[in-house]
Design brief:
- This protein has 567 residues and is an alpha+beta fold.
- The chain has a single domain, classed as Rossmann fold (3-Layer(aba) Sandwich).
- It is 36% helix and 10% strand.
- It contains 19 helices and 13 strands.
- The strands form four sheets. Strands 2, 9, 10, 11, 12 and 13 form a six-stranded mixed β-sheet that branches. Strands 1-3-8 form a three-stranded antiparallel β-sheet, with no helix packed on it. A two-stranded parallel ribbon has the order 4-5.
- Strand 11 and strand 12 form a beta hairpin.
- Helix 5 crosses helix 7.
- The longest helix is centred in the first third of the chain and has 23 residues.
- It is globular, with a radius of gyration of 26 Å.
- It starts with a helix and ends in an 18-residue tail after the last helix.
- It binds 2-acetamido-2-deoxy-beta-D-glucopyranose (12 copies).
């Protein structure tokens, strides 16, 4: 009958559709990898010899006719807005795309993989409640006015370090294509055509936007503090280091803060040389020898690598062979834990640089949690309280902050460079806004030097696995464009009226537990004078020469408060 024939036709169509969709995830077809897999590929724009022609394309200043240009009041949203603009929506990673983890079903709870990439996460707003201040907000507490802002911020997303794990992984695949070739199937079939598309060290376009956006946000939150410069008849000095991405970081921040091209005329950007042997608070590892001795300066890397050696076994087994069909996904290459970390890093770096990475979809939610813990261990013991050289490296910035609080130049008992810090041209002491760009390791060293122990509340991180007993999470503290903000406030209702507090990525950090004389305060406030005197004591107790140059024995698993053991 017509009806039956029609049903049969529908059935055939359905079966065909199923066959086609099954074919698209076919794990039986093995693809031989091309000989170019893993080859480094790159482009170079602009072509050499090309320049902007400002004779034929004159700038606004030559053309004229700009129309009306009346200014308005400087924004002061931190002071005036009823709600704080937290960076915790999709905007924190726009325009990157990130898939759900491997194995997550249609009905699984959404899991944002980008928040589990340790220092490779894009920064996002952290809740004050994560460190114990349930009610605190970055908005200026009522009854207070902000008088000074100190910002220490990290560069945005970048390419990997030259010769790091992702590049080594590419070379391993390239070597395999030469040594008899390799073949892939299933989820790994993209590797048959994969090339290494990342450069090294530079900021990516998304990284630029992070620093630019941070500049925009800080102008909007704190722009009124510029009136202080106007009254004094000066423009600010903002600082950074000489590495290309650091210079571009400061430029992008300034572009966001002042506008393009206004930033070229409205701020002096001071570039401190970053190279071995030269003092620079923004690159203290160049002056702290023990930071470059593995048994002292990178004990975190060692234990993180050890943790990773066991954490990814089932994933490696899955990627190596399709257990369901007892069928290899890859032959001719044997994956190791090092490769698992490299592929996870490729997920992060390719997403930052290219907008998307096929590597991300290979890893499960558990893998991303382990990847984060790998970074938690690495940073806690390399640059946090578990490191014997963290506080010493952060001491330079600590001294500079205190110098700006007390209007007196610092002395030379750390990696800071007195050639600059002994001169108000290069080291002004009376700015209402300070903005220094640096690296994430230095931000963490600095937080350790500041004795902000609420960031590391709990027992030293367990070397075998995450016991969730410590408040430290790397992606919250050292992500791309992370920033440490100090608000100096005048609060007529308080005694004394001069108050201060610290924020990390919008989380207000309580100091009552680690700053003697600072009472518990729901807004994280403490007397300015008391905080300065606590920090002065902290400067005295951090022995830069011993921690950076002595021969002592340090081991992971201990909370050293960032200072070398006396042994
Ligand atoms: C894959 O191969 C197995 C074993 O040869 C076979 O049973 C299965 O039907 C094949 N699957 C597909 C999608 O071709
Ligand atoms: C690739 O092969 C070269 C030359 O044999 C070797 O030096 C290098 O260690 C290999 N690299 C990797 C990651 O396998
Ligand atoms: C301070 O910085 C200047 C400029 O980079 C450099 O020449 C000098 O050597 C530095 N001082 C020290 C002690 O490293
Ligand atoms: C630190 O290392 C540098 C470079 O190797 C060396 O010249 C210097 O003497 C070392 N400093 C100390 C105190 O050991
Ligand atoms: C994971 O695999 C490595 C290397 O094969 C092995 O040394 C380690 O014991 C394994 N760990 C676990 C928990 O199975
Ligand atoms: C991978 O490991 C297997 C088993 O240990 C070994 O037989 C094979 O030679 C290895 N392949 C490569 C490419 O290293
Ligand atoms: C450079 O740093 C060292 C500590 O490593 C310090 O002794 C020296 O005075 C500093 N020099 C200058 C010019 O800042
Ligand atoms: C710092 O400046 C003071 C006063 O100008 C000068 O006496 C001193 O020698 C300077 N110190 C250094 C290390 O440049
Ligand atoms: C700081 O040093 C520079 C270069 O030596 C000099 O031109 C400038 O006048 C100094 N600034 C002050 C305030 O002494
Ligand atoms: C600008 O701010 C600084 C730091 O708070 C302060 O010392 C100075 O008096 C202010 N200047 C003016 C003109 O208000
Ligand atoms: C640093 O914090 C700890 C508590 O975490 C506290 O015992 C210690 O006194 C603090 N150090 C200074 C110099 O305030
Ligand atoms: C540091 O001390 C250890 C143990 O006493 C010794 O083996 C090592 O040679 C010393 N290292 C240096 C650089 O003096």
């Amino acid at each position: 009958m017509m009806y039956t024939a029609y049903s049969a036709a529908v059935l055939v169509v359905v079966l065909l559709a199923q066959a086609i969709s099954a074919q698209s995830i076919d794990t039986n077809t093995t693809i031989t990898a091309s000989s170019f897999v893993g080859v480094a590929t790159s482009n170079s724009f602009p072509a050499s010899g090309t320049t902007v022609n400002s004779d034929l394309f004159p700038p606004e200043s030559k053309i004229g006719f700009p129309g009306p240009t009346p200014t308005g009041l400087e924004a002061a949203a931190a002071q005036t807005a009823p709600i704080y603009p937290y960076n915790n929506g999709p905007s924190d990673s726009f325009p990157l795309v990130a898939p759900q983890p491997w194995g997550s079903g249609f009905f699984s709870k959404a899991f944002d993989i980008t928040k589990y990439w340790g220092n490779l996460s894009p920064w996002f707003s952290v809740a004050s409640a994560d460190y114990g201040l349930d009610e605190a907000s970055p908005l200026i507490p009522s009854g207070c006015n902000i008088v000074q802002l100190h910002l220490l911020y990290r560069h945005g997303a970048r390419y990997p370090t030259t010769g790091a794990a992702p590049q080594t992984f590419a070379t391993k695949l390239l070597n395999a294509t030469k040594a008899g070739g390799f073949s892939v199937t299933g989820e790994l079939d993209f590797l048959s055509q994969w090339t290494y598309k990342l450069g090294a060290e530079l900021l990516t376009p998304f990284g630029r936007s992070q620093n630019f956006q941070l500049g925009v946000a800080y102008r909007q939150l704190y722009g009124e503090l510029l009136n202080n410069f106007t009254e004094a008849g000066t423009i600010p000095v903002f600082r950074t280091e000489s590495q290309d991405r650091m210079v571009k970081t400061a430029n992008n921040f300034a572009a966001g803060f002042f506008g393009v091209p206004e930033y070229l005329d409205q701020v002096n950007i001071e570039i401190l040389v970053e190279t071995p042997g030269v003092n620079n608070s923004g690159a203290p590892y160049e002056a702290c020898n023990n930071s470059n001795v593995a048994s002292k300066g990178s004990i975190g890397t060692t234990v993180a690598t050890k943790f990773a050696a066991s954490a990814f076994n089932s994933t490696i087994a899955r990627l190596q062979s399709q257990s369901l069909m007892d069928h290899c996904q890859i032959t001719g290459v044997n994956f190791t834990a090092t490769d698992a970390i490299a592929m996870l890093q490729l997920c992060s770096y390719e997403t930052h640089a290219l907008g998307y990475s096929a590597f991300c979809g290979l890893f499960s939610e558990e893998d991303f949690l382990n990847y984060e813990y790998y970074y938690d261990l690495s940073f806690y013991y390399n640059n946090g309280p578990g490191s014997p050289v963290a506080a010493a490296q952060g001491k330079g910035y600590l001294q500079e902050f205190v110098a700006r609080f007390t209007q007196s130049f610092p002395d030379a008992s750390s990696a800071l460079n007195l050639t600059y810090d002994n001169n108000t041209t290069y080291f002004p002491l009376n700015q209402s806004i300070y903005a220094d760009a640096t690296h994430e390791v230095v931000v963490l060293d600095t937080l350790t030097a500041f004795n902000l122990t609420a960031l590391f509340n709990g027992p030293a991180l367990n070397l075998l696995g995450n016991q969730h007993r410590n408040s430290f999470v790397a992606s919250k503290v050292v992500p791309f464009a992370t920033h440490f903000t100090t608000q100096v406030l005048e609060c007529p209702a308080y005694n004394p009226t001069r108050q201060i507090r610290f924020l990390v990525n919008d989380a207000v950090i309580p100091i009552s537990g680690s700053y003697p004389g600072c009472p518990v305060n729901a807004d994280g406030l403490c007397s300015f004078d008391n905080v300065v005197s606590v920090l002065q004591k902290r400067i005295e107790e951090i022995d830069f020469n011993y921690d950076c140059f002595a021969n002592y024995t340090a081991e992971a698993g201990v909370d050293y408060n960032g200072r070398a053991p006396k042994s």
